[in-house]
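Example S7 (structure tokens).
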């Protein structure tokens, strides 16, 4: 059975993902985008299994305490300050050959950001024309426009 590593992220045009420990567009809420995140992370591809959600320490602490850990998911929190043997296993799992999908929410407005992810390499990923269960076209909430994109790795 081949594995698939799915990553999910919401980004500004400059690939910003955070500012001062919050989403860049905070305090605006994108409820439907959040429901999309929940659905994608809570729905396992194998019946009887749970998805693993890997997040950084700042993301963990940005989640209200009453909502931690994220329910119906295995939560793993990464931190540069911790030196755990288990981290080696996580990095090996993330580097292992497998199909990779990137579920990206492209927020159309720029906000101040202090945390970024790299651009998505066209040499490594292709944009899919659609994906089951992912809404197509421009979405709008709280005066913000965004759209969902799904990328798939070119090489396994």
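Recovered sequence:
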């Amino acid at each position: 059975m081949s594995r698939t590593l799915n990553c999910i992220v919401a980004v500004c045009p400059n690939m910003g993902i955070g500012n001062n420990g919050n989403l860049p567009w905070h305090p605006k809420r994108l409820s439907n985008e959040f429901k999309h995140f929940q659905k994608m992370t809570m729905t396992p591809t194998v019946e009887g299994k749970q998805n693993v959600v890997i997040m950084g320490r700042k993301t963990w602490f940005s989640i209200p305490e009453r909502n931690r850990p994220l329910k119906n998911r295995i939560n793993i929190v990464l931190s540069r300050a911790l030196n755990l043997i288990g981290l080696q296993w996580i990095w090996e799992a993330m580097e292992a050959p497998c199909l990779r999908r990137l579920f990206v929410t492209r927020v159309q407005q720029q906000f101040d950001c202090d945390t970024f992810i790299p651009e998505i390499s066209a040499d490594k990923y292709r944009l899919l024309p659609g994906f089951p269960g992912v809404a197509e076209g421009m979405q709008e909430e709280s005066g913000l426009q965004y759209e969902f994109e799904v990328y798939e790795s070119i090489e396994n």
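Notes on this example. The domain at 4-153 is CATH 3.40.430.10 (Dihydrofolate Reductase, subunit A).
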